[in-house]
Every structure is written in C-alpha cells, then in structure tokens.
Amino acid sequence: MFICLAIAVTASPVWADTASNRLRIAYTEFPPIEYQNDQGEPAGYFIELTRKVVEEAGYEADFIYLPVSRIYLYLKRGLVDLWPGLSNIPGVQGEVLESWVNVYPVQLNAWYLEGSEPLTHFDQLEGKTLIVIGGYTYGGLISWLERSERIQLSEAPNNRAALEMLKLKRGDYVLDYREPVQEILTHPEDSMIRGVELRSRYAAWLYSLVSPRAAVLRDELDDAYLRLVSRGEAPSYQDFYSDYVIPGFPEL
Fold first, then answer.
1. Residue 32: left (phi > 0), alpha (psi -120 to 50), or beta?
2. Within 13 Å and on the Cβ side, how many CA atoms surround 65?
3. What domains can be seen in the chain, in order of their start residue?
4. Cis ω on the peptide bond leading into residue 90 (within 30° of 0)?
5. Residues of 112-122 as b/e, b for ≥16 C-beta within 10 angstroms?
6. Measured between alpha carbons, how far is 100 from 7 in angstroms, rounded to an integer?
7. CA-to-CA distance for 50 and 205, rounded, in angstroms?
8. Phi and psi angles of residue 42, each rounded to the nearest 5 degrees, phi first
9. How far is CA 190 from the centre of its chain?
10. Residue 27 needs a FRET pair 20 to 30 A away by CA distance; which of 4, 35, 110, 117 works?
C-alpha cells in the first residue's frame, strides 16, 4: 500500500532505518510525469514506474508530496531516500547519487504565439519578456535568468495561467516543459501556440547521499528496473549522453 506523508524538517540529518524495507520517496506537481491526483494520491507515469521498480527490488514505498524546493532540502538533509526527478540538477549536485539508468526524455520549451519569431539561439531572448512558472527551478536556469539584466521575467502561478498570459501578450515566450503543456492544450485558441526546444534531459532516480545505503539502493533499483525492461514491463533506458541544448544556452 502506498501512502502520502508529511515530514517535519529537523536541524540534523535523519534517515530511514537501513534494515527497513520501506523507502521514503518524494514527488512533486509535474503532470503527467508525477503529480497528486484528486484523491490526494501520487500519480503519473514516472510514479507508476517507480512503484513497479520499488516492488521488484523488494521494498515498499511511502510517497511524500512536496514542492520541488522542499524536495531539494529533504534530499540534502536525508529526510527522504529518493526522488523520481530529473538528471543534472545544479541545486543538488554533490548531495545525491543519480541512477545509472535514464528513462523518460523531458524537454524544456520556449512557447510562443504563431507569427512570432521562433528561437534558434538562446540570445534571441535578450530584450524579451519571459513568462516563468512560480516554484519551477528549470534545472538551475531560473537562478541564471534572475541574475540576467537582459531578460525580463514575469511569473505565472501555473501552466494554464502562463499560456493565458502569453495569449494576452503579457510576455513574448513561456518557459515550460513540453509534457505538462501538451496536457492542457485543449482550448480552441490554444491552436495558435507553438513551441521550440531549449533543452532536453532525462528522468532519473536521485538518492540522498546522507543515507548510508544510497549506493546500495541505486544498484538494487537499477537492477530491478533492468529486470522489468528485460521482461517487457518497463520502457527501455535512454542514452545518458544524448541531452540537447539550443545554441547559446548558458552554462549552469
């Protein structure tokens, strides 16, 4: 049985009993990859795969719903064992072990209105207003953008609001991931919205290095995932070195 928990932040690192077969797994609002459904339960195709992998490895999962910034903190303090998240996140480098396997490609797009100039180089954002989603870190890109004096930021509370702001021309582009946006492009007037890829990464499992069993968990869950792949019960892993960035994308 899978449950959602809330864990209080403590001043010192706390990790699960290494003899326990229960894993504390963080997840956040990032549909359709992972999210909390109307019943308050963890859902999404990466959550479902994580459930399978954890069970195959002989563990039980306690899913904990958190904003992404809190997930970073919990990983750093050892308050969760792992997070089904994204590869190459600057904010947790040196704090986590990433799975060797990479599963789903996750594409970051610049969304714009038909008739506007599509991006072929990141420098085309200079002098523009970029609509961003509150709470998103974009794999460290938001910090770079906040320091930039050449790109104006306008914050939207969620994906749908960002698209509506774009249609009202309150910004030139929306910075958002392909998967969540494609899920909500359902309004007739959404047909005027286009997207161009800025960066692609892959979904990966991130293990808190505070836990003394981080390396063991990574090996066990990677092996479990590969067994599922061999039986045709999970999608094949991806080439780790196939990430894409648009020309001019900043060094993060």
1. alpha
2. 15
3. 3-104+203-242 (3.40.190.10), 106-199 (3.40.190.10)
4. no
5. beeeeeebeeb
6. 28
7. 9
8. -70, 140
9. 24
10. 110
Alpha-carbon distance 214 to 166, whole Å? 43
Rounded to whole angstroms, how far apart are CA atoms 103 and 119? 27
Token digits for 233?
Answer: 């019960």
Sequence-distant (6+) residues with CB within 8 A of 156 are 131, 132, 133, 134, 162, 165, 174
Beta bridge partners of 32: none
Nearest to 27 by CA among 2, 10, 1, 8: 2
Residuewise pLDDT in 10s, the chain (252 residues): 444 444 444 434 444 455 579 999 999 999 899 999 999 999 999 999 999 999 999 999 999 999 998 999 999 999 999 999 988 888 898 999 999 988 888 899 999 999 998 899 999 999 999 999 998 889 889 999 999 999 999 999 999 999 999 999 999 999 999 988 998 999 898 999 999 999 988 889 999 999 999 999 999 999 999 999 999 999 887 665 557 899 999 987
Question: In sequence order, what are the residues at sequence separation of 6 or more whose Cβ sits closer than 8 angstroms to the Cβ of residue 227?
Answer: 56
Q: Which of 182, 200, 202 is nearest to 85 (CA)?
A: 202
* Alpha-carbon gap, residue 32 to 9, rounded angstroms: 28
Q: Could you identify the residue written with the tokens 């799975």?
A: 99
| Residue 86, C-beta contacts closer than 8 angstroms, at least 6 positions apart | 106, 139, 201, 202, 203, 204
